[in-house]
Amino acid sequence: MKNFTNDIIFFANRLKNKENFSFSKYADGEWAVIKNQAINNKEFWFDPNSDKDQQKRQALIESFQYKHPNYYVGISCPCCQGVDTFNEMHEFSGQDEGHLTWANLWVNSNYKYYLSNILPIYKERHVVLFCNENGRIANLPFTPYMVVPLKNNAWEYNWNLVDDAKRMISAIPSKDMLVLFCCGPFGNILCHELTKFDDQHTYLDIGSTLNPFLKSAGFERHYYMGNNVFSNLTCQWGKQ
């Protein structure tokens, strides 16, 4: 049986050892898109009646089902989104158990570990950060090698970056870059496309974990707002 703490330690050790891998997480918003449900959460939106949005949805599905020895997919856990959703995501992903983990891997009760053990690694690596254009980069506890600014609903307004990001990565002389995505489902698509393009870097969908520093979130998350049910929640695993 998977263990919430053990999984984040596993990935932290890979980061410390500079073992390249990719992590792409799919929480309730991404799953709503995959299920073809309309959504607008102030950070990204999806209209199932739009042909253009259906193309994005297909790209998201492809990223969810992509298989690579070092590509890991985070799905919603039964304690947060219910057993039915967990089972559906587990099956639809087509991933084996070893390449699945929590969409909440970096957050809830793991966030303290993330701040203490993973965030400091960013100081030691050349980091490319994809984040909202309104993010307060100067507030970050590390200095990115490159920042790629994105608009709200990035997969609508910054879709050109799917190809541009490949050129950016190619132009960087060093390998073993750490590429971080804070851009909703567009981050899933970028993680997938860049892993296919050049797997000699580490690509991480880190979601909202830098929000307390960047101050650019469409809405705040409870897990980083102090002592509450989410900050103390140790997420569970298990098909039923």
Characterise this structure.
- There is one protein chain.
- With 240 residues, this protein is α/β, with parallel strands linked by helices.
- The protein is built from ten helices and nine strands.
- The protein has helices at residues 4-16, 28-34, 51-65, 78-81, 83-93, 111-122, 154-157, 161-171, 184-197, 211-214; strands at residues 22-25, 39-40, 45-46, 71-75, 100-102, 127-132, 146-150, 178-181, 202-205.
- Helix 3 crosses helix 9.
- It is globular, with a radius of gyration of 17 Å.
- The relative contact order is 0.20.
CA distance, first residue to last residue: 13 Å
Q: Please indicate the count of domains.
A: 1
Shape: globular
Helix coverage percent: 25-40%
Beta-strand residue fraction: 5-15%
Query: Which class do the helix and strand fractions yield?
Result: alpha/beta
Name the average pLDDT: 94
The neighbouring-strand order within the major sheet is 5-4-1-9-8-6-7
Note the run of SSEs as H and E.
Answer: HEHEEHEHHEHEEHHEHEH
Radius of gyration: 17 Å
Low-confidence stretches: none
Count up the helices: 10
DSSP, total strands: 9
- Main β-sheet: number of strands, strand sense, barrel status? 7 strands, parallel
Secondary structure blueprint with pairings:
Blueprint (H helix, E strand, L loop, with lengths): L3 H13 L5 E4 L2 H7 L4 E2 L4 E2 L4 H15 L5 E5 L2 H4 L1 H11 L6 E3 L8 H12 L4 E6 L13 E5 L3 H4 L3 H11 L6 E4 L2 H14 L4 E4 L5 H4 L26
Parallel strand pairs: 1-4, 1-9, 4-5, 6-7, 6-8, 8-9
Antiparallel strand pairs: 2-3
Helix pairs in contact: 1-6, 3-9, 8-9
